[in-house]
Specification:
7 helices, 2 domains, 68% helix, 167 residues, mainly alpha
Length: 167
Amino acid sequence: MAGLGLPRTVQALIHSRPALIIAAAYLALSLAVVTALFFPRASGYVPTWLADAVYPIDKTDLDPVRFAHVLALAAVAVHFVPQDWAALKWRGLLPLIGCGQHLVEIFCVGVFLTFAAQSIFVEVADTIPVHLLAGALGIAVMSAVAQFISWFVPLAAGARPRAAVGA
């Protein structure tokens, strides 16, 4: 199974049943902890050492909890989404695929948009509809930037300096 560009041993590990079980268990445990901490009456079921280890999550650096969560989500997705799934070629997903192809640039745009959205929440309104609108607009802006970058890259490739003739 090629496509990820990973060695076969890593691919075999990612697609293994134990990796799927560990990832799913981690995601289920994460959901249970977050849900329990969200409701004050249920927060007593979460051990203090676990809540202290997880919270506060460092959102500016690569927090180990966030990194593990992304890896677990990726492991589950790789297991359940086939490489040749027809939906991956659907035109509606092209903006999101473009975001994945230009991950670093879109991450930088996302950091800026996070600050912009936080300013809106503080200065205008901090309601659920405003959060939903900010999220939708953020996805639209990041998709537009990814599309712009995809359009710009071939133009920049054509403008590269060429080797001198006879050199």
